[in-house]
Specification:
Elements (H helix, E strand, L loop, with lengths): L4 H7 L8 H46 L3 H8 L16 H11 L7 E5 L7 E5 L5
Antiparallel strand pairs: 1-2
Helix pairs in contact: 2-3
């Protein structure tokens, strides 16, 4: 689509001296043009971020890991999934918390994640811990 130069110039002109009706019309056009720039930016970034897991994750897995998306997620995630052994062993959270309190008596623990609870391969992660 081609737009003539004079039409582009009219879209960005603001004529105050021509009267109130023309000034309001020009203001309406200028605000609409500048508003559409921000709307296009927001739409593009929203579509990109929304579709990143749908399009970019499989593409990255295909290129880097031969199509194995689980291997890609395992490689880049901070906490690995535990290997559940199905051997029952109680997860002694009080012993773990006593150990943390002995090492760091002033620590404030805000978040605890237990993976494979009551399994021999249970893993406990502490997050949002603060040392005053």
């Amino acid at each position: 689509m081609f737009i003539h130069r004079k039409l582009i110039k009219k879209l960005f002109t603001f004529r105050r001296e021509k009267g109130l009706d023309i000034a309001v019309s020009d203001a309406y056009k200028v605000i609409g043009i500048w508003g559409s720039v921000f709307n296009i930016l927001i739409a593009f970034t929203g579509a990109f971020l929304g579709l990143a897991t749908v399009i970019l994750l499989p593409a990255a897995a295909f290129v880097s890991f031969g199509g194995d998306q689980d291997k890609l997620i395992e490689t880049f995630s901070a906490t690995p999934e535990p290997v559940v052994s199905h051997i029952k062993q109680p997860t002694k959270i009080d012993t773990i918390l006593d150990n943390v309190n002995n090492r760091y008596p002033e620590a404030i623990i805000r978040d605890v994640t237990i993976m494979a609870h009551n399994d021999a391969n249970a893993q406990v992660y502490f997050a949002n811990c603060f040392l005053p």
